[in-house]
Amino acid sequence: MIFITGDTHGEIDYPKLLKLKEFDLTYDDYLIICGDVGICWSTERLEIMLNLYRNIGCTILFIDGNHENFELLSKFRLVEYKGALMHQLDGHIFHIMRGEIMELDGKSFLCIGGAHSIDKMYRIPYISWWPEEDITDNDINNAIWNLEKINNKVDYVITHCCDSLTVTKAFRFKRDNSSDKLNFIDKIVTYKHWFFGHYHFDMNVNEKKTCLYQEIIKLSD
Ligand SMILES: [Mn+2]
Fold first, then answer.
1. Which of 48, 125, 171, 208 is least surrounded by Cβ atoms within 10 Å, i.e. has the fewest?
2. Which domain holds residue 50?
3. Do 51 and 175 meet the contact criterion of CB atoms below 8 Å apart?
């Protein structure tokens, strides 16, 4: 089984994951989290967070959001798992690098973490805000390079923020450099469905794009 959900913010929005307990989960089941996972936030609480997420009992694959401690995240070893480059935080907990394409049960997922914090001015650099949050040209170039090998076609796109067109039209929020870069991805990639987090809504923007927060989607086999 493959599940996808939105931001979990460490223990704050963790309780929704307990709904997964009704399934008979194994490590051959996967939970994809669309950023702001918050396992890596403070060094002191890292082990507590890892324990909490281990308790779900399936393999956890997440992209980064804008609220992650990138310094701490970068300390984990890089591994190739499911065809994609990832930081391995624990036996069954992985952070997917930006622009990587993973394959789970025959389905492909283009994963691009990162987003811009609108409340950046109220945050403290390297304590509650990290400059690595924004999507860069290098991230997009990595996606382009990986997409070329499969003719720019994937089953799913997983991001934290969404493209500027969606953010301005569907949510009436401001565009930014990160969302602009996803406009380009939207133009070049053929996909069945795009899931993203960040905006703290559960909403189907259209038939191909879904914003996730508390909802947990189970992909059909
Ligand atoms: Mn968030």
1. 125
2. 2-218
3. no
200 Cα: distance to centroid of ligand 1 (angstroms): 6
Average pLDDT of the segment spanning 1-11: 98
Distance 124 CA to ligand 1 centre (A): 17
Ligand 1 center to 36 CA (angstroms): 5
Closest CA to 59 of 10, 102, 11, 99: 102
- For residue 128, pLDDT over 90 is answered with no
pLDDT in tens, 30-66: 999 999 999 999 999 999 999 999 999 999 999 999 9
Q: How many domains does the chain have?
A: 1
Nearest-10 Cα torsion for 92, 142, 193, 55: 10
Q: Which of 144, 149, 38 is nearest to 93 (CA)?
A: 38
- Helical ranges in the chain per DSSP H: 46-54, 70-73, 137-148, 164-169, 177-188
CA distance 112 to 34: 9
Calculate how far, in angstroms, residue 137's C-alpha sits from the geometric centre of ligand 1: 23
What distances in angstroms separate CA 171 from CA 7, 109, 201, one per listed residue? 17, 24, 10
pLDDT confidence of residue 221: 76
- Between the CA of 149 and the centroid of ligand 1 the distance, in Å, is 32
Query: Does the pTM of the predicted model rise above 0.85?
Result: yes
Q: What angle do CA 45, 132, 135 make, to 5 degrees?
A: 125
